[in-house]
Amino acid sequence: MSAILKDPLVAMRHMKVEDLDEVFINELAAYSHPWTMTILQDCLKAGYHCQVAEFDGETVGHAVMSSAVGEAHLLNICIAPQWQGRGLGRRLLSRMLRIAHEKNVDTVFLEVRESNLPAQLLYQSEGFCEIGLRRSYYPCERKGRENAVVYAKPLV
Hints:
This protein is of the alpha+beta class. The chain has four helices and seven strands, in the order E-H-H-E-E-E-H-E-H-E-E. Strand 3 (about 60-70) and strand 4 (about 70-80) form a beta hairpin.
């Protein structure tokens, strides 16, 4: 009898400067309006909680969160397109929530594109509640801008 792993073993670890080239490539592949390299560098310099998901030496996803005074803001979760649909977004989210808990955060906030229904379903399934709408928050490919749905999750 042979065992087949359904999902490959993906390691989660702190992001390093050396990871930024691969992180940036994933941003470009996954988003119509990706973060710039400067934004990614600034997040590391600022001491934000930056994590990467890695498989066999390849960065396949990343997440960035800031925290201060009992609140955290999940700024970015990105999974390389060829790795989407394997539960890595949920695993990165869980890791970020654990970090927030360890930092004594009371509430985690995030924004998500109104059109990104898979992400909204993920956040809702992990206990996030919709608390508002930011009109014209995100740039979009078509003319105009896209609303952001604001979510919060209490950790206490």
